[in-house]
């Protein structure tokens, strides 16, 4: 289990719904983060909410705007 309560098996198959890229757990944000889209998907009670409409933008991280 990851610190967010998500199994490693589930984490391996999850992808960002916006760009289909990888998501990584961020304990500081209590979310799964897509660095490409700069979006954080909240994890509630160990269940990731993978809805673009509910994702929040990441702040303060450098990223490519291209």
TrEMBL record:
Top-level taxon of origin: Bacteria
InterPro entries the UniProt entry points to: Trm112-like
GO cellular component: cytosol
Record-linked Pfam families: Trm112p
HAMAP family: UPF0434
Family listed: Belongs to the UPF0434 family.
Protein name listed in UniProt: UPF0434 protein G3N55_02045
Source organism of this protein record: Dissulfurirhabdus thermomarina
């Amino acid at each position: 289990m990851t610190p967010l309560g998500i199994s490693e098996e589930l984490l391996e198959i999850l992808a960002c719904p916006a760009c289909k890229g990888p998501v990584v757990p961020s304990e500081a944000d209590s979310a799964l983060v897509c660095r490409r889209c700069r979006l954080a998907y909240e994890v509630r009670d160990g269940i990731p909410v993978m809805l673009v409409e509910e994702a929040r933008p990441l702040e303060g991280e450098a990223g490519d705007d291209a």
